[in-house]
Design brief:
Elements (H helix, E strand, L loop, with lengths): L7 E8 L2 H11 L3 E8 L2 E10 L8 E6 L12 E9 L4 H10 L8 E3 L2 E7 L5 E6 L22 E2 L1 E6 L3 H9 L4 E6 L2 E5 L8 E6 L13 E8 L2 H13 L8 E2 L4 E6 L5 E6 L27 H6 L7
Parallel strand pairs: 1-4, 5-8, 10-13, 14-17
Antiparallel strand pairs: 1-14, 2-3, 3-4, 5-9, 5-10, 6-7, 7-8, 11-12, 12-13, 15-16, 16-17
Bound molecules: zinc ion (ZN).
Length: 312
């Protein structure tokens, strides 16, 4: 059997101020901070993970807050929007909730037969909520200000702008196990893993658009689920075989990661489903303390002193 990915594992974004980021995703969006850690490549920067109650793969949006970075410039070779799933019947609740929190929303639109509303987070990340009742792994967060029946069910899809379609399409369908789902309003949709949520990529081709630039509000990378290290290595070999340059597997402690740029320029990651966020914290207290990978524990005092305080 050909190796394949199984949908979105997480999406990682550059944000502005860490406290503003934390307040928006926990208080407005009702997500749980499941891990408060640091950027392993830049230990003066937090790595904040928001998800369902247990950090189920596919529910997870993570941030590197760089308050002094310039804003991202939308363009080709970028993830341009991150839609989340809400249950059917929740659209009215969310429109009201976002208005109460002074978040401006667009008109409700229909995409591939589903109701969608779009808005931005405080630092310019384009988000959307998509109504669908398809079942997916999700654990409700009892501590959320959003009632369980309306809570976000996880990432629905990622929307990419690309200068050309074919090379990215060839990677998705020929290497990563996606199938073409259809085309609507100039968006090409691909799906993997037998699911229609949490496993979708939408691509819009904009041949005259400039390349995007990274910064606050910009997506840093999208990670795809692989079951375990064996599957990760198999997909990695397939990626390498078509001439792309994946990194060796990197131990992120809660999962193992491989990174590579897809042909259009978007940074992709392969991430294993396990061991998961409860590996080093009591599941009841996820996100409360600053968690460092064991090999950084020796520098804890120094690292903590370099991070801005967070209230939550
Ligand atoms: Zn990642």
């Amino acid at each position: 059997m050909k190796p394949t990915v199984h949908g979105i594992h997480h999406v990682t974004v550059i944000s502005g101020d860490a406290q503003e980021n934390l307040d928006f995703y926990t208080k407005t969006m009702g997500m749980r901070l499941v891990k408060k850690s640091i950027n392993q490549d830049a230990p003066k920067v937090y790595h904040l993970f928001y998800a369902d109650a247990e950090g189920t793969p596919g529910t997870d949006l993570t941030f590197f807050p760089f308050p002094n970075a310039r804003p991202a410039r939308p363009g080709v070779g970028q993830v341009i929007e991150v839609p989340f799933v809400i249950p059917v019947g929740s659209m009215g609740y969310w429109q009201e909730r976002l208005a109460e929190h002074s978040v401006a929303t667009g008109e409700v639109e229909i995409r591939f037969g589903q109701q969608v509303v779009t808005f931005e987070d405080p630092h310019g990340l384009r988000l959307a909520l998509v109504e669908t009742d398809e079942d997916r792994p999700f654990v409700a967060w009892e501590g959320s200000p959003v009632p369980v029946e309306h809570q976000l069910r996880g990432v629905h899809s990622v929307r990419l702008w690309e200068a050309v379609l074919e090379p990215t399409e060839a990677l998705l369908t020929g290497v990563l196990g996606f199938e073409r789902v259809g085309e609507e309003d100039g968006w090409h949709r691909y799906g993997t893993g037998g699911s229609t949520v949490g496993a979708l990529v939408d691509i819009r081709v904009l041949p005259d658009e400039k390349r995007g630039g990274g910064g606050t509000g910009g997506v840093h990378h999208v990670a795809w689920r692989v079951q375990d290290e064996d599957e990760e290595l198999a997909v990695r070999r397939a990626v390498e075989a078509v001439g792309l340059r994946p990194t060796p597997p990197i131990d992120r402690f809660w999962f193992k990661s491989v990174y590579f740029h897809e042909p259009g320029g978007v940074l992709f990651e392969l991430a294993t489903d396990g061991p998961g966020f409860a590996r080093d914290e009591n599941p009841e207290h996820l996100g409360e303390a600053l968690i460092l990978p064991p090999w950084m524990e020796a520098q804890r005092a120094q690292i903590e002193a370099g991070l801005p305080p967070l209230t939550h």
